[in-house]
Amino acid sequence: MILYLLTIVLLILIAPILLSYIKATKMVLFFKRPVPLLQGYRNFSKLFSKETIISEETSAITRYAPFLVLSPLLVTMFFLPPIVGGAYYVSFVDAFTITGLISLSTFFLMLLGLDSASAFGGMGSSRESFISALVEPAMILTIFSVSLMADNLGIGQAGVNLAEHFPKEHMASYLFAGISFFILLMAENGRIPVDNTETHLELTMVHEAMILDLTGVYLAIIETASSIKFVIFASLFASLFMPFGLDFIAPIAFVIFVLKLFFVATLVAVFEVNTAKLRIFKIPNLLGLAIVFAFLSLITFYVLGD
Amino acid sequence: MFVFDTLSLVFVALILLGVLPNLFYSSGYLPHIERKGYYQLHYFAFIASMLGVVVSANALVFLFFWELMSLSSWQLILTEVEDKSTIKAARFYFLMTHFGFVFLMLFFFIVGNGNLGLDFSAMHLIASEFAYPGLLFLFLLLGFLSKAGAVPLHVWLPYAHPAAPSPISALMSGVMLKVAIYGIFRFLLDVLYPWPLEWGILILSIGALSSLIGVLYALSEHDIKALLANHSIENIGIILIGFGMGMIFDSLHLEVLSTFAFIAALFHTFNHMSFKSLLFMSAGAVLHQTHTKNMEKYGGLIKAMPLTAFTFLIAAISISALPPSNGFLSEWMIFQSLLDSSHLTIISLKLAIPFAIFSLAMTGGLAIACFVKAYGITFLGLHRSTNAKHAKEVNFLMKSGMILMTAVVLSLMLFTPFYIQWFDKVFVSLGRASVYAKIFPDGIWNMHSIGINGGMVSPLVLLISLIVITALMLFAYKLFGVKTRLHKTWACGYTTSAKTQYSATGFAGPIRRFFDWLYKPNEHFHKQTIAEHNTKFTSAHYEVHIQPLFERVFYQSMVKLTNLISYWVYRLAHFGQTRYAAMIFNIMLLVLFSYRLFTHEFSWALFIFELLIMMTSTKILIIGDKK
Amino acid sequence: MVDFLIGLFLASLIVALFTTRLNGLLLWYAINSLMLGLLALSMGSSIDDDAMILSGVITILMKAIAIPFFLKNISQKFHFSQQIVPKIKVHYAIMLVPVILVFTFYLSEPIVNMIHTHANYMAISISSLFLALLLIMEHSGVVPKVIGFLALENSLFLLGTTATKGMPMLIELGIFFDLLMAIVVINLLFDKEEMRI
């Protein structure tokens, strides 16, 4: 139990560092001076000391939505697969629930965008609804197919099963699921081919457009939510697609897991540097690929499995 | 004459749960209606007839109440005739519902051996001896699915439901469709019981198709009630997916799994009743205040109508299947029953089920987008018309109707185990395996899937943890005492106005563009350009209208065919005497030929030869030269 | 391991179907061939078949390195447009690809029962045959068509290796020479085209 709680605290603490790390890696690759790894914390403390400005046009949604964006993600943190063998974990939560919780958070984020009556918010929400409508089915299919391969629909148990018994006989389905999940990881977290969180250009904004009207604590909460979302995806990727290192003793297993997370972050950074932002109507090409692979993974498992 | 077994009682309860809040709402809505007596008479007749359908025990009573239900709801659509489109919608509804009625009657004539007074329980024997059970199944499907609004018999639904007054829309969409689902449950489980695998697959694919098509058209709608009506098609599709899975498992003799899937379908039937009624009530309240169904004229209503906004939000979360709502739970059950099939070895199932999973997953994503649009454009932002500006909260009776319906939604979420226990009894009474103990093996906290390695969900724990974490954060925020300041929305130096907001059309724009190949939209775009510059204009108007593909392709070609036939009938009536003689000649020829062909000996060569002779003689003797 | 490589083979082919850049297409083709070569190597080493190892090495050298470079040079020489937009829209492609795969899984089921290899191999290699044909169909440019043809050849090779545990060396070499000839002919055609302009 103590390891379980420790894991959650560790993941929450490492979340802002991971995002700063991606940024720093990209800057290094662009021959710029990188931001320090603790930049996420600095931003957080700065935003926390500011006052909150709320738009006159907004309603109660803006007062409550930031908390409702963060809380489903925090709940999701409790359902992730274990990172240390023998630790307590919630074994039974399946793909539909986790996707549902993430969608709940996105749902309130989109309402938040529409609440302030600005053109930017509407634009961001509209685009986000488009992207998440395509992401959700792919994600459900991918995680379900991985968990079917691991012989248990619960994600926590699936992670453990994968570490114990690697699905060699379903290697092809497993690979497709991995590709699909990586694309989803990029798409859901506002990474470059889909969204660019670093600019404020209305042509490219998705996530930033929705939260353009927030300041202070509310913005800090939303930023935390997006970093936690990244850490959820990264650790799902690490547990489901790099299932090893569970059977070491606790400190080493922790270190291995953190290294895996940083590896995923590096992968994301390298991928981002090497691609251009897609036009909004080109995004279906990428997400369509994710859907095709997700579906393929499931159907290969279904038809050829057993 | 009447039957009160558990299945009937469950549906009686469903109707009562849907009707009781509606009574309050309807009496609050009454001052708005001119022909009060007329409305009340049909309203209560409608409710009584629905109750009658689900408790009737023989075909005659069933058909009587079924017809009464159709007619009274048809008259209710016509209570508030504002324009031609209402009359057209009512006519369409009348036509479709009688289309279904004819097939039901045929069904009953066959399974009752011509005796309509026969009890349902006695029909099973006759049905099992009938040589072509597939025909019976087809009649049943056409009869009930045309009422339930499954693809491809769904076209009337987005017209008829919005045309009725709001309480009636809530009843029609929330409750009346479920009566058709009751019919499917009753007659498939009771009368046509041992069914082949293909029937289940057929229902599964109809469900998958309906769910996708319903949500896609809902997304492109800007009439709020038509949007909700299209969502009914989607949800009926989801119910049918669950039901189809139940049938598939049953024909493979996996009884426990089959009961699980049936329970999921029944649970979703209840859930859809609750949240769809609530959505129609809230939409009706908005409509009552703003006097328009067009979403582009709403906006900012959350400030004027907080209660309506709150109830709509609850229902929207539930219909989008977001955890921990009741809609989520029933969709979760349906997902689990779909995934429990991974070990089946029949190749047609291996191909059909992943498609159903895919369409269900796709539906979930699109439904979220759709309800963000419906909620955000209606209740958030700035008002887009003066009516929306002067909107107030509706009267107490209507409010209490909405609150009661919210209570029903919440009760379905909080007391899931009790409802499921009850649904379980339905299937036990129909002689099936009991699964309650397997779904809730250790108390009411965790809900298990039945499959070998199924998942689990604990709705109450999810709900409590979400509430606790949110409350803790809110508390911390309050404790922190953050200074808050009000200011205008930042709009790059311009002032924010209703015109700079995103519209409903714009919001659905990207998705509409992606599905352009399906929608084939009619775009109307007028702009007043300045001095021939394409980019400078004083005013612009953009509207997109989408006519459903099915209606365009399927129904309009039907209309063309009917026209063609009636043209020939017309020509036939105006023939000269010689032509009649020629026709008799041809018919004699046909009779002789077919006798020879079908009773004597059959060969394709002969068939083609005789067909050619028939065609030639028809052409020469009857049709003659084209004038 | 073989399963993994076959998966990557199919994956790279599908990604190639969705590519809109010429260089991207070449890259995916190269990866596709590389996977094929590695597959032949690993299969050859596991059943100890020298001929198969040799053809694997040739595949990697020729198809994964030489031909993509060669085609890239041609495309630079003749200034082909980098933009190759598939004629089949992405919405249709999203539906078409799974449908093709499902359909081939359905079709190949009796064949799989007939030949006693792993079910995955046959089904995936037949479906990659169809996907390569789709790649030829959806592009109008010459180079993408050539790549489609080459991908078709790759999937034939895959089918041969997986279904029969190694094609005879001679046939494989013959196919290589055919390929070489085709590339030379293409080059000649382009040269002639340029002279005429």
Task: List strands and helices in order, with pairings.
The complex is a heterotrimer of chains A (306), B (627) and C (197).
Chain A: H1 2-29, H2 39-49, E1 52-55, H3 60-77, H4 95-115, H5 119-149, H6 155-164, H7 171-188, H8 207-210, H9 216-241, H10 250-273, H11 283-304
Helix pairs in contact in A: 1-9, 1-10, 2-9, 3-4, 3-9, 4-5, 5-6, 5-7, 5-11, 7-9, 7-11, 9-10
Chain B: H1 6-29, H2 36-55, H3 59-77, H4 84-111, H5 120-129, H6 133-148, H7 157-163, H8 166-191, H9 197-219, H10 224-251, H11 255-290, H12 301-304, H13 306-319, H14 326-339, H15 347-379, H16 386-389, H17 396-414, H18 416-429, H19 436-439, E1 447-448, E2 456-457, H20 459-480, E3 484-487, H21 504-507, H22 509-514, H23 516-519, E4 522-529, E5 537-545, H24 549-573, H25 577-600, H26 604-623
Antiparallel strand pairs in B: 1-2, 4-5
Chain C: H1 2-18, H2 22-47, H3 50-77, H4 90-114, H5 119-138, H6 142-164, H7 169-196
Would you give an account of this structure?
The complex is a heterotrimer of chains A (about 300), B (about 625) and C (about 200). Chain A is mainly alpha-helical and about 300 residues long. Chain A has one domain (about 1-305). Chain A is about 70% helix and about 0% strand. Chain A contains eleven helices and one strand. Chain A has helices at about 1-30, 40-50, 60-75, 95-115, 120-150, 155-165, 170-190, 205-210, 215-240, 250-275, 285-305, and one strand at about 50-55. The mean pLDDT of chain A is about 90. Chain B has helices at about 5-30, 35-55, 60-75, 85-110, 120-130, 135-150, 155-165, 165-190, 195-220, 225-250, 255-290, 300-305, 305-320, 325-340, 345-380, 385-390, 395-415, 415-430, 435-440, 460-480, 505, 510-515, 515-520, 550-575, 575-600, 605-625; strands at about 445-450, 455, 485, 520-530, 535-545. Among the domains of chain B are: about 1-195; about 500-550, no CATH class; about 550-625. A two-stranded antiparallel sheet of chain B has the order 1-2. In chain B, strands 4-5 form a two-stranded antiparallel ribbon. Chain B is globular, with a radius of gyration of 28 Å. Helix content of chain B is about 70%, strand content about 5%. The longest helix of chain B is centred in the middle third of the chain and has 36 residues, at about 255-290. Chain C is mostly helical. Chain C has one domain. Chain C has helices spanning about 1-20, 20-45, 50-75, 90-115, 120-140, 140-165, 170-195. The longest helix of chain C is centred in the N-terminal third of the chain and has 28 residues, at about 50-75. The radius of gyration of chain C is 17 Å and the shape is globular. In chain C, about 45% of the residues are buried. The mean pLDDT of chain C is about 80. At the A-B interface, strand 1, helix 3, helix 4, helix 5 and helix 9 of A face helix 13, helix 14, helix 15, strand 2 and helix 20 of B. Strand 1 of chain A pairs parallel with strand 3 of chain B.
